[in-house]
Amino acid sequence: MTSTETFFAADAVRFLYTLTHTIPWKELKMTEHTDKTVLMKCIKCGYTEDVPLSDLLTLRELYDLKGPEDDSVLCPFCLHDMYPVSSDHFTKNSDK
Question: What's the pLDDT tens digit per position in 16-28?
């Protein structure tokens, strides 16, 4: 091997070494969110989903909602309203 080939091989090994150690580090940074969630249920089809509380707080800020009683999202299956299972609005509509 010539000196140029040796430097190239050393650079290639250094590059691969750097990549293999960077990937696990990034995976450690990319963890599932541990945010509190609110169980939301669809009025029409009954689909339930845990929605991160941070998403609901963002919606409250964007649309000037008064509080948890106004929380609602669209059902991904039937496009009707989903409300928190514990909300008054949900319990009123489930009695119909």
Answer: 555 554 445 555 5
